[in-house]
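Need a sequence for this fold. Nothing fancy.
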């Protein structure tokens, strides 16, 4: 879904970046903003390929558990924003300003929006980013990993999550062809004309012939988006145990009279329910985890996708499935974060643990929050679990500025006047192009 990046794929795609970046509109990257220094960066790895992503996930995860990040961390993320509001997946030198050849990234921008909106006090930066996202919406209502690239389920879903984070109704964010983000997602869900075991799943993108293949990563992303949720969801309650309902199909061939016999969900919530049912079925058959589809690694677990699935199932109130999958992660988390200092892995585990109603400070005996805090600048405040719970219950915003969401609710009205960036298609996204589970 959203919670990690593939540095190998990003590195392999850099060759395409150099050749194609000249096609980017200079308007989209004019008067670039200054970049931050590395003092506030989370993690020790080179931020060239994943800095914005891992920074956003780390900051967001800290915020959900009552940690007020160090100011240097927020400064670093803000420093990566280009003048038009976009963020880039790839920066040859993250310390340099954006330029005409800086490739804007939809996923990175949407993740940064969610983090900055949650932290508060960054309404101008958030406003610019959301306006930019609106300005590069595809005609089908969706987004691809770069402006102008074909819509994919992951990019559409994380933008819906960004809108949700600022209180914007994605169903009213329409393209020039009057399509919404949910329209774009609907075209990527396998319906009643698909094999029974694949119904309800989402494809990342259609293949060259327009066919859809189930993709667990895309399915988890779309399951969240259909519920109008972002990376942070409310924790499961103990009585949230309802199993997801599969896609309802009638007729001898599994279809119905609508949509040429293809059938399918009519509302985003129904699509999310069917997606959750597909995920739950795959997880049950595979010892409560998802496997990698990366060539050469098909027999290896995909920990990030598994964490994504936990969040998606928790968002739908499917406690039994979410907790069983989280239990698998607790047993195998050390295999994922072997360095014990990967902020993206730790952040996604914090988000998944919290979503499933568990305690991130006692994740199979490990304090994920403490380990995450150690990967970045010293936090300004670390709330106790009791303080965090009380703040959540009372709706206390921990002293953050209140101008963010109220301001962002209105700026979409002027977003259409901003210049749209011309697109280039290369794999510098948080999402690899995948087919299969």
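Here you go.
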């Amino acid at each position: 879904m959203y919670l990690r990046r593939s540095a190998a794929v990003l590195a392999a795609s850099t060759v395409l970046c150099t050749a194609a970046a000249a096609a980017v509109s200079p308007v989209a990257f004019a008067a670039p903003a200054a970049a931050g220094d590395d003092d506030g960066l989370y993690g020790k790895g080179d931020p060239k390929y994943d800095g914005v992503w891992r920074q956003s996930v780390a900051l967001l995860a800290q915020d959900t558990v009552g940690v007020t990040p160090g100011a240097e961390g927020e400064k670093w993320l803000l420093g990566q924003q280009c003048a038009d509001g976009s963020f880039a997946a790839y920066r040859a030198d993250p310390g340099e300003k954006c330029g005409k050849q800086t490739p804007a990234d939809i996923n990175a921008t949407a993740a940064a929006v969610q983090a900055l909106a949650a932290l508060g006090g960054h309404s101008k930066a958030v406003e610019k980013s959301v306006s930019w996202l609106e300005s590069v919406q595809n005609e089908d209502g969706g987004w691809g990993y770069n402006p102008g690239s074909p819509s994919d389920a992951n990019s559409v879903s994380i933008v819906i999550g960004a809108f949700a984070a600022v209180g914007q109704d994605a169903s009213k964010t329409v393209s020039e062809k009057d399509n919404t983000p949910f329209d774009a997602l609907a075209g990527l869900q396998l319906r009643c004309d698909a094999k029974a075991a694949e119904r309800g799943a989402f494809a990342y993108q259609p293949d060259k012939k327009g066919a859809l293949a189930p993709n667990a990563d895309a399915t988890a992303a779309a399951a969240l988006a259909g519920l109008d949720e972002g990376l942070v969801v409310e924790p499961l309650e103990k009585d949230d145990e309802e199993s997801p309902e599969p896609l309802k199909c009638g007729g001898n061939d599994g279809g119905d009279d609508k949509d040429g016999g293809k059938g399918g969900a009519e509302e985003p919530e129904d699509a999310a329910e069917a997606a959750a049912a597909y995920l739950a079925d795959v997880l049950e058959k595979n010892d409560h985890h998802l496997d990698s589809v990366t060539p050469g690694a098909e027999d290896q677990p995909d920990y990030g996708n598994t964490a994504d699935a936990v969040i998606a199932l928790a968002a739908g109130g499917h406690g039994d499935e979410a907790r069983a999958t989280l239990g698998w992660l607790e047993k195998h988390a050390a295999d994922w974060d072997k360095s014990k200092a990967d902020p993206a892995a730790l952040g996604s585990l914090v988000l998944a643990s919290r979503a499933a109603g568990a305690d991130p400070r006692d994740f199979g005996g490990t304090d994920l929050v403490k380990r995450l805090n150690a990967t970045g600048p010293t936090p300004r405040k670390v709330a106790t679990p009791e303080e965090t719970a009380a703040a959540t219950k009372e709706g206390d915003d921990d002293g953050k500025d209140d101008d963010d969401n109220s301001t962002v609710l209105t700026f979409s009205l002027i977003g259409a006047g901003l210049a749209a960036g011309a697109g280039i298609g290369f794999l510098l996204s948080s999402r690899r192009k995948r087919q299969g589970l």
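For context: The chain has 15 helices and four strands.
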